[in-house]
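User: Can you write out an input/output pair for a complex, sequences first and structure second?

Assistant: Here is one pair. Inputs:
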Amino acid sequence: MAEPQHIRGPSVTSRALSILGAFEGSSGNLTVARIAARANLPLSTTYRMVHELEEWGGLRKGSDGKYQVGFRIWELGQMAGRRLRDRAHPFLQDLFDLTHENVHLAIREGTQSLYVDKIYSSRKMPQVSRIGGRLPLHATAVGRVLLGAQPDWFVDAYLQRELEAPTTKTVTDPRILTQLIGDVRRDGYSVTIEQMRMNALSVAMPVVFNGQTVAALGLVFEAFRYREVQRFMPQLRGTVDRIEVAMAGRPVHIGE
Amino acid sequence: MAEPQHIRGPSVTSRALSILGAFEGSSGNLTVARIAARANLPLSTTYRMVHELEEWGGLRKGSDGKYQVGFRIWELGQMAGRRLRDRAHPFLQDLFDLTHENVHLAIREGTQSLYVDKIYSSRKMPQVSRIGGRLPLHATAVGRVLLGAQPDWFVDAYLQRELEAPTTKTVTDPRILTQLIGDVRRDGYSVTIEQMRMNALSVAMPVVFNGQTVAALGLVFEAFRYREVQRFMPQLRGTVDRIEVAMAGRPVHIGE
DNA sequence: AAACGCGTTCTCACTGAGTGAGAAGAATGT
DNA sequence: ACATTCTTCTCACTCAGTGAGAACGCGTTT
């Protein structure tokens, strides 16, 4: 599982960043030795830097002596994409109140969709996507919406690569996918059935700001309820509209 | 507003961290020059490091040329305190479904409470606390719960300092607060009225894991509805219980 | 109880990566 | 057209960062 986390240059900063990077896709708690191994750095160097990061608050030493990402990084992370997340969130919650289906908001990061917000309760725990998690662009409704928002050269290049097939029903044929992306662009929404997980269906629509698709809003529920898709469409549409209006509006100051 | 972000040492890492720190409490979009000023670093040094951070994904250059915190930091931040947030979240949502009042979860960080999760819809936007935001420990219900979980020497030291009074009703007298903290410890919950904002009331209870108060769960609603506090107590209690059970249980694997 | 494995902590002499003043160029405002 | 502010880049100097290696701590195995 441990990828060959190669160091870009011999720069000090890149080493420090390698250490933070060692926590990406980890169990969350790492010893100094493990960090060193994952970051491909000498032990003493790692030790020194881990301490510097700890003092700053970027890392935190747990009661078991292992290190984990500190809350200062979490706080800092809250600054990223704040406009979108803050303005969209209340309407995602409204949509959940209305439907009680899992709602999520994703953006494109490279060749994956990144889930930036997600509403769910203990009744239906999310099965594949999680906040902060990534999924391929071709196998989910939000992914296809985000892919469709990219220029043709991007779509073609994406479909050229080896495409994962999480289920036996996942479409990976570039020709068919090109067709499907065309449909998404024309219709303004995407519906995928059992592409990422059996018995799961997802619907998604683009969120547009300044003429650009900045995110995709989606709903997920059981595949056998496919007839209900029509019922949810207007609610999804309405939510997207409200988000778009909120995005354009003046800043709403919350708290401090 | 710009605090004198002093550099701990002349170490390269501390400089890089100063740059990230420049975004804390900022508007979100900063020019290189502004970053340099806030981080107290020479312009050329800042320039070089900003680019290194950008290449790694820690910073992102917006369409206006200004820099903002990148999603890689956000993703990394999702690793911090994941156990608590992941396990508690579905039950916070359940509580919101039940009450439709603003629900939040906070931990103590230093002498402040840090809001790590929050459920709200567009009906009642949060007024003072936001996810990733901080508030003083003595003026909110979650804060008092978290304060009460600390040893006496901590409480005494905290109350010794100059205490903020966000409203005219905020209690800042150390004697009275000591008494109130005692009540919280005895009763296992805290109710505060108009301590942080006029016309706001909050109730909170501690979340205990391994014999330690790791967080506080709270509800906020309008002060004039103070009679309803009793109605919410069992629901809060039940939610806390479920969170505590979930915290102790085996890991529930959600997606990747 | 000794040997082992695995992790942490710390020292120190060497050296090349990081430094930052400064200048030129690009943008923006008045 | 001028003033102001911000970005980008160069280069000679030097001091901060480096990492092998040793010592130590702590469970577990033999």
